[in-house]
């Protein structure tokens, strides 16, 4: 649960402005973006995701770095499992 | 330094390591606490202690939410799972944490309806899908996780989901750091500050550590180079005789934190007068409870729970390890009765717990060396 997963925003959900579709590797899932709406999120923005919520906007370099770090820590598979496990669409 | 070449920027890592050796005075012993369990995991995984000179000691702090949860709270949560019609939803990290009568996983095997979820919103969805059942979410975590629970409770109220509630065990990091600073058997000279908690609370929240206790804190990223650079920044401050908050992880941590997250937490939660931390005892105003406005979604108000204080197994020395008084392998149970497969104490359960990290990496490496 303490994982922070980097994801790229690929779609917004017009009927549900608190949600956005993020892509991590080849996995796409909806996450809650309520905490970053004031930041003016755009398509292709990168965010760090924690327990289904986008927590902070990051750059593409930081996203690469975070994915690499998860792999080094042996947590990359766990991160994708978590993302695939979100069920709250 | 044979592991260094596997990391990114090996040249910069070598430079940081050299700078650390230059700055660390040979006649001084430095005790630096990494507050966050994520850092503990990274430090052991990357063998960073081997890169540091002997007189720099890393003390592993209380920033692993599973590890600091006292056994009585685990039992309280599990007591809900045995009630008729209740589904208890918990993060995967909680599933193997031992209670007095077994872990959530063991209770599940005995027939309790306990579901693993990846998000509090999954628990809310479970409630909507099972209107004839009561779904309780076993909430744990520091300020990184608490806003997610707050927003989930807000959604539950907006949607009028009446069969959903939260067993709130969220804790806050600042009072724990203060308790460590006030503890008589604790001598820490500086702090490696948490990374992800700081994305929510920002850096200003740590200023009292510098102002009132004269100790530096540097919020740090999790890569090997990040941790080493943070140690360089700390040593420079100690050399100058200054104490201030610095942000090594500025590429991710905003100085002011995340205001909507802080606002959501303030709307839904209030501070408990006191809360028990495993190993640290009762700390005043160190945890969150659900506000009166959200009482209908508060499992502690909706259900009766034993609320019994359970002491850890006598031989387990989790408290001393949590305070950094003992190293994990100095506990009598370490690696014998208490292993990641059969944890006695919570520090052995989570990958962010000092004992599990030490067991998985340091011990393995040491035994390889011995062979």
Shape of chain A: globular
Q: Strand count, sense and closure of the main sheet of chain A?
A: 5 strands, antiparallel
Poorly predicted regions of chain A: none
Main sheet record of chain B: 5 strands, parallel
In helices, the fraction of residues of chain A equals 25-40%
Q: In terms of quaternary structure, what is this?
A: heterodimer
Would you identify the regions of chain B where 5 or more consecutive residues have pLDDT less than 50? 367-371
Strand content of chain A: 25-35%
Largest protein interface, residues of each chain = A-B, 32 and 44 residues
Which terms summarize this structure?
heterodimer; A: 89 residues; alpha+beta; 5-stranded antiparallel sheet; 5 strands; 26% helix; globular; B: 371 residues; alpha/beta; 5-stranded parallel sheet; 4-stranded parallel sheet; 15 helices; 13 strands; 39% helix
Q: How does the SSE layout of this entry go?
A:
The complex is a heterodimer of chains A (89) and B (371).
Chain A: E1 5-12, E2 19-24, E3 27-32, E4 46-50, E5 53-58, H1 60-72, H2 76-85
Antiparallel strand pairs in A: 1-2, 1-4, 2-3, 4-5
Chain B: H1 10-23, E1 30-36, H2 37-45, H3 48-51, E2 56-63, H4 71-81, E3 86-91, H5 104-109, E4 114-117, H6 120-129, E5 134-141, H7 146-159, E6 164-170, H8 173-182, E7 190-193, H9 196-201, H10 207-213, E8 217-219, H11 224-240, E9 245-247, H12 259-268, E10 269-271, E11 274-277, E12 281-284, E13 288-290, H13 299-302, H14 318-322, H15 354-370
Parallel strand pairs in B: 1-2, 1-7, 3-4, 3-5, 5-6, 7-8, 8-9
Antiparallel strand pairs in B: 10-13, 11-12
Helix pairs in contact in B: 1-11, 2-15, 7-12
Structure description:
The complex is a heterodimer of chains A (89) and B (371). With 89 residues, chain A is an alpha+beta fold. Chain A is built from two helices and five strands. In chain A, β2 (19-24) and β3 form a beta hairpin. The longest helix of chain A has 13 residues, at 60-72. With 371 residues, chain B is α/β, with parallel strands linked by helices. In chain B, the strands form four sheets. A five-stranded parallel beta sheet of chain B has the order 2-1-7-8-9. In chain B, β3, α5 and β4 (114-117) form a beta-alpha-beta unit. Chains A and B meet through β5, α1 and α2 of A and α2, α6, α7, α9 and α12 of B.
């Amino acid at each position: 649960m303490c994982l922070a997963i980097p994801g790229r925003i690929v779609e917004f959900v017009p009927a549900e402005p608190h949600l956005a579709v993020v892509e991590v590797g080849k996995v796409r899932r909806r996450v809650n973006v309520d905490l970053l709406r004031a930041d003016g999120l755009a398509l292709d923005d990168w965010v760090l995701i924690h327990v289904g919520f986008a927590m902070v906007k990051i750059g593409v370099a930081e996203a690469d770095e975070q994915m690499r770090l998860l792999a080094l820590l042996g947590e990359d598979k766990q991160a994708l499992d978590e993302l695939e496990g979100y069920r709250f669409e | 330094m044979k592991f260094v070449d596997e990391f990114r920027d090996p040249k910069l890592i070598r430079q940081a390591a050299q700078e650390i050796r230059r700055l660390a005075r040979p006649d001084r012993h430095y005790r630096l606490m990494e507050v966050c369990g994520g850092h503990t995991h990274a430090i052991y995984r990357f063998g960073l202690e081997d890169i540091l000179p002997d007189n720099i000691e890393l003390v592993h702090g209380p920033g692993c939410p599973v590890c600091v949860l006292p056994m009585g709270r685990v039992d309280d949560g599990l007591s809900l799972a045995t009630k008729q019609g209740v589904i208890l939803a918990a993060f995967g990290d909680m599933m193997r944490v031992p209670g007095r009568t077994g872990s959530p996983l063991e209770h599940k095997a005995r027939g309790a309806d306990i579901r693993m979820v990846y998000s509090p919103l999954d628990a809310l969805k479970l409630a909507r899908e099972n209107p004839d059942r009561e779904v309780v979410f076993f909430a744990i975590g520091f300020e990184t996780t608490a806003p997610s629970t707050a927003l989930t409770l807000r959604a539950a109220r907006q949607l009028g989901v009446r069969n959903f509630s939260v067993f709130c065990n969220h804790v806050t990091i600042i009072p724990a750091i203060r308790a460590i600073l006030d503890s008589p058997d604790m001598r820490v000279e500086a702090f490696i500050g948490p990374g992800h908690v700081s994305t929510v609370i920002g850096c200003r929240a740590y200023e009292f550590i510098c102002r009132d206790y004269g100790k530096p804190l540097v919020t740090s990223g999790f890569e090997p180079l990040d941790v080493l650079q943070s140690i360089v920044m700390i040593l420079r401050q100690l050399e100058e005789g200054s104490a201030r908050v610095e942000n090594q992880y500025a590429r991710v941590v905003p100085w002011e934190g995340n205001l909507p997250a802080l606002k959501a937490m303030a709307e839904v939660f209030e501070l408990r007068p006191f809360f028990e931390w495993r190993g640290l005892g009762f700390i005043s105003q160190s945890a969150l409870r659900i506000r009166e406005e959200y009482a209908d979604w508060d499992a502690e108000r909706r259900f009766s729970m034993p609320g019994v204080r359970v002491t850890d197994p006598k031989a387990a020395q989790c408290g001393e390890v949590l305070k950094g008084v003992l190293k994990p392998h100095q506990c009598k149970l370490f690696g014998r009765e208490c292993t990641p497969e059969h944890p006695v104490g919570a520090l052995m359960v989570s990958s962010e717990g000092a004992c599990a990290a030490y067991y998985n990496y340091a011990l393995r490496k040491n035994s390889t060396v011995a062979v």
